[in-house]
Amino acid sequence: MPNSAAGPVGEALRGRAGLPFAKVRDVADTVEFASNGNTASGYLATPSGGSGPGLIVIQEWWGLNPQIKRTADRFAAEGFVALAPDLYHGELAGHDEMDKAGHLMSTMPPDRAARDMSGAVDYLAGLGSTTGEGVGVVGFCMGGMLTLILAALRPDQVKAAVPFYGFPQGDGEPDYSDLTARVWGHMASPDDYFPPEAAKALEAKLRGMGKDATIDVHQAGHAFMNEEDAMGTHDAELAARLWPQVVKFLEDSLA
Asked: Rounded to whole angstroms, how far apart are CA atoms 226 and 219?
């Protein structure tokens, strides 16, 4: 994911271990929701119990592809009502189409992305099946960056933020003054796209502002959670270890 692609969005918005990926779906559907006068859509996965804490799952730069939907399914299997908004409005890039993925991300209208994510938060918070206080957000790569932006944008509802190998940088940073979410980031080293030293600097900045923020840097490549291994950096052992810890963090934060 090229650094240059991260700018427009940032500027404008100023498995439990061993869980089988293919057999975790409870109830899932495509839903539509209001987006500041327009309409957006997303993939909603509901736990078999019918209710649970709300969780926004934000896509990588590939789009709302089957892997992100499976991730939402996995969170639903853990008891969350998980909504993955379609920020590209139906567009997708395959793992052999990195140029297209970069183009989709860099040309994604940032004001529309902001509206869609905020609309997803309101839709999820308003569902009768969503329990607890506020909602959580988790995202990967581009979605990791957007996770922190959404948490800063919607402090009234976002109470937990878990960004993976992605965060806003430079002029793309939002104003974190009103951030209320607990933040637990998981970054990669080495990572040319989101440098680990910049990640730790962000952690220090947030803590200096009195925020509840921890950003861990793992000795693994970018996209280490993605089992499709498009970049050859998937770390199955690390992913299996982190998954239950992230689930517990979200459960505790949203109880």
From this structure: 15
What Å distances lie between residue 119 and 35, 57, 110, CA to CA?
Answer: 5, 13, 14
- The tokens for 181 are 């979410």
Q: Report the 3 state secondary structure along 214-240.
A: EEEEECCCCCCCCCCCCCCCCCHHHHH
227 Cβ contact list (under 8 Å, min separation 6): 21, 67, 234, 236, 239
Q: Is the pTM of this model over 0.85?
A: yes
Ordered by where they begin, the domains of the chain are 3-254 (3.40.50.1820)
pLDDT in tens, 146-189: 999 999 999 999 999 999 999 999 999 999 999 999 999 999 99
How far is C-alpha 192 from the geometric centre of its chain's CA atoms?
Answer: 20
> How is residue 254 annotated by DSSP?
H
Contact 1, 195 (CB under 8 A): no
